[in-house]
Amino acid sequence: MPHHLDLYVKRESALHRLDPRAKMLAAVGFVAAVLLAPTRPPWPTGALLLLLIGAAVLARLPARLVCRRMLSLVVVIGMPFLLSRLGGEATRAAGEQFAVRSLLVAAAFLVLMASTRAVVLLEVAERLPLVSVFGQLGEFILRGADLLAEEVVRTNRAWVLRAPSATLKVRLTGLSQASMSLLARAAARSERVGAAMVLRGFQGKLPMATPTPLPWSHLLAGLLFALISLGLAGVGRWR
Amino acid sequence: MALAALEVTDLSYSYGQDSSALHDISFRLTPGERVALLGPNGAGKSTLLWCLVGVLRAQGTIAVDGTVLRPGTEAEIRAKLGLAFAEPEDQLFMPTVRRDVTFGLLAAGAGSEEAAHAAEQAIRSVGLPEEALERAAHDLSSGERRRAALASILVMDPLILALDEPTNSLDARGRLSLARILLQLPCAQLVATHDLEFARALCARALVLVNGELVADTSMTALLADTKHLQQYGLTAPLRTDDGQTGVL
Questions:
Q1: Fewest CB within 10 A of the end CB: N or C in chain B?
Q2: Per-residue model confidence (pLDDT) at position A45
Q3: What would the 3-class secondary structure string for B78-140 be?
Q4: How far apart are CA B92 and CA B75, in angstroms?
Q5: In chain A, domain spans
Q6: CA A167, A171, A173: angle at the middle one, nearest 5?
Q7: Average pLDDT value for residue range B190-217
Q8: What gap in Å lies between CA B119 and CA B113, rounded to an integer?
Q9: Which residues of B, range 16-35, sit inside 8 Å of A by Cβ?
Q10: pLDDT tens digit string along B91-150?
Q11: Is the ipTM of this structure higher than 0.85?
């Protein structure tokens, strides 16, 4: 069973096999390209979208799943976009730019996370100088979310057993009240986890195994994707 | 007298000014000896174990393999005395079992290959397949979690293994399997439990804690034969079958 927060989709594909560091490099290049590319005329961002769709197809990701995951983001991104429509020309252009870029960046991360296990991505992030702390935090969040999810399931079962005829509203109220006790338990657990870490020699940074060298072919593949993305953005911007 | 693996002298600990959790505890463990730390709930067993590794700062003296626990020696003590928590979930805090099992070694400066090799050995020694290293803790059964947490301690090759209620949430088969693993380990063991049957299978000697006081330091056989004192200590003897044998272990 994967981690509850893991968006990984198990597939046999070239993208799944690609070294996560190469994928991160490609993703960083793609995000930079999205930020550089103009949204008017639309062809540079359209080309970037096609490139991303190509990557998703290469990863053999089910279209329905990608669309479903994108749908939740559309709500988040759609609201500021709709609000921007109420403003003048400059506001509308900014809103449009924000919506297009956000969707493309989010889609890129969805493809990255669907083709790479979250724990592997976090380990890569942990080795990067500026985002190391986020990688470490992410690992705890990943594990913590698993524990919390188990607790929520157990709490919900206890509710169902104690009040089998309770309406959804009553159960949700109970769950929200129980969340306080879940928080208290989480705090108590964090103390014990802290002790477990100290007992095993924790000194402020999670110990990491030395990474294996990144194969040249993987590095080149990641670099190529990043350069194509940047090339498209560059042509669109300075043409 | 041979050097003790663990020597505890006049150990006392209070959670607050008026609540004495441990009072003048003294005992010693010889290398390789397995000792049961018995007592009813709230007797102070867990508190004693937390004191031994210096998480709780107690009065008195704790010496592990001749090294006295004091500010500056905690790391040395903790490398020699491994503590298995009552709840294995608390010791499995990383996203994969491999990260958990290699944690201590990598933190101590071991190389990646050495840590990986030791992790594979440790996970096999607790009866789990190597593939378990790649799994997430929530993906393991209670018994497997217990064993994975144990592997994360055994990988450090401790001189003493302290276990806090190791049979919690284990079924009879799980207890038997754990007992077999522990019986094969060469290190000294201090097993805090209220599971007398498990203690009898594992240990020849018993320390009994009641209300924070060490009320008995005796052989398991003598303790189990003494029904009157067992009752007095708040302990229950394992059930006997018709042929006089006790339980599943």
A1: N
A2: 93
A3: HHHEEEECCCHHHHCCCCCHHHHHHHHHHHCCCCHHHHHHHHHHHHHHCCCCHHHHHCCHHHC
A4: 20
A5: 14-123+214-238, 132-199
A6: 115
A7: 93
A8: 10
A9: none
A10: 898 889 999 999 999 988 889 999 999 999 999 999 999 999 999 888 898 889 999 999
A11: no
Predicted local distance difference test score (pLDDT) of residue A73 = 82
The answer, for A147 touching chain B at a CB cutoff of 8 Å, is yes
Q: Which of residues 100-159 of B touch A (CB under 8 A)?
A: 102-108, 111-112, 115-116, 136-139, 152, 156
Residues with Cβ within 8 Å of residue A30, at least 6 apart in sequence: A48, A51, A52, A108, A225, A226, A229
Check CB contact under 8 Å for B108 and A203.
no
Give the pLDDT confidence score for residue A32 in this predicted structure.
96
**pLDDT of B90 higher than 60:** yes
Q: Above pLDDT 90, what percent of chain B?
A: 67
How far does the CA of residue B195 sit from the closest CA of chain A (Å)?
A: 23
Asked whether the whole model's pTM tops 0.90, one would answer no
For residue B33, count other CB atoms closer than 10 A to its CB: 18
CB contact under 8 A, B95 and A139: yes
Give the residue from A151, A161, A203 showing the smallest Cα distance to A182. Answer: A151
pLDDT at A157 over 80: no
Q: What integer pLDDT is reported at residue B212 of this predicted model?
A: 93
**Token pair in block for residue B236:** 């229950």
Query: How close A197 comes to chain B (CA, Å)?
Result: 8
CB-based contact B78:B53 (threshold 8 Å) = yes
Confidence at residue B243, expressed as pLDDT on a 0 to 100 scale: 53
The CA-CA-CA angle for residues B87, A124, B104, to 5°, reads: 35
Residue B60: what pLDDT?
Answer: 95
Q: Which of B207, B209, B211 is nearest to B199 (CA)?
A: B207
